[in-house]
Amino acid sequence: MPDSAKQSHLPITISLCMIVKNEEATIERCLRSVEQIVDEIIIVDTGSTDKTKELVRQFTEKIFDFEWIDDFAAARNYAFSKATQEYILWLDADDVILDQDCQKLLELKATLSREFEVLTMLYYLSFDTDGNVLYQIRRERLVKREKNYQWIGAVHEFLAAKGSQLDTEIAVAHKPVKHDSDRNLKIYERRQLQGEEFSPRDLYYYANELREHNLYNRAIEYYQKSLATKQGALEDNIAACASLADCFYELHDGENELKYIYQSFQYSTPRSDFCCRLGFHHLNNNQIKQAIFWYTLATQLKTANSSWGLVNNQCATWLPYLQLCVCYSRLGDYQLAYEHNEKAAKFIPDNPMIHHNRKLLQSKLNIEPSKE
């Protein structure tokens, strides 16, 4: 049997590559979640002064120092350069692979065809108090080492990985316990002072940092600059419209809020989160019929897990039903309000809002309360 045929029947091998700095609060949890899956752990430390390295040595001796130069891509590329296995998996220190996804990843490792060069996974960005995923995106997560894919971008870097691709349903969960809120903003401002010309992507992510610091007018300026280039990525343009709407909402400028919600439709067909934005706007203005139209449309739109954009799972599941309950209640149609509350309950059965609405509407409709 040829060597290539023998290899195709063997599990792939994986190097985990990470960059870290002062991650003692999360690094052990991260590495423990993945240690049985990977064949090699590469840790690049960019200047830790806490117990990060000490904790990492429980899992690997392959710890490399890298002088921090305000460039995340440079650090990640250095980590990738140290890998020796067939494929490279990357994580951040506050990421974790949950048990059910560990099993999926082990199965993938045992069966993956080596023809695939890029594997994408879901990235769960946040969770509600019941553990339901609130927001998710999709990222390139596992790549073939021999392709020498490179990271690009000093901040909010991305992996420029093009090749034979497999989109998986395996997820990585983001579970932060702290956040260095000023770090990225300061990097952008230093780059700006140095006279660097920002790409459309940089303009968009700089605007994100400004918005997160409640600098809404400056954020608006840079979102608009990003859109004006007409060269931004599709999902960045759509997200910029959402963020512009958020900024104008905070500034009590409803006209411009609506403008950018509708502008998102230039880039893609309506999505559930934008429909919910419009429903919320009309509900706040007591335009109930218009609110019902948009919330109903939100319930009819399907969000595929293959989406590369930010997915708001609330707007794609229970939220529009719950808001329709409010709308129909205001119109005095308590039967339809009750029905929509029960539809929302299929997604969040234990939510206090569901129980409150149910009790109130059962009294309005003279329905005997359930004994359950």
TrEMBL record:
Taxonomic lineage: Bacteria, Bacillati, Bacillota, Negativicutes, Selenomonadales
Organism annotation: Sporomusa acidovorans (strain ATCC 49682 / DSM 3132 / Mol)
UniProt xrefs under PANTHER family: GLYCOSYLTRANSFERASE (PTHR43630:SF2), POLY-BETA-1,6-N-ACETYL-D-GLUCOSAMINE SYNTHASE (PTHR43630)
Pfam families membership: Glycos_transf_2
Limits of the Glycosyltransferase 2-like domain: 15-130
Protein name per its UniProtKB record: Glycosyltransferase 2-like domain-containing protein
InterPro entries linked: Glyco_trans_2-like, Nucleotide-diphossugar_trans, TPR-like_helical_dom_sf, TPR_rpt
CDD domains reported for this sequence: Beta4Glucosyltransferase
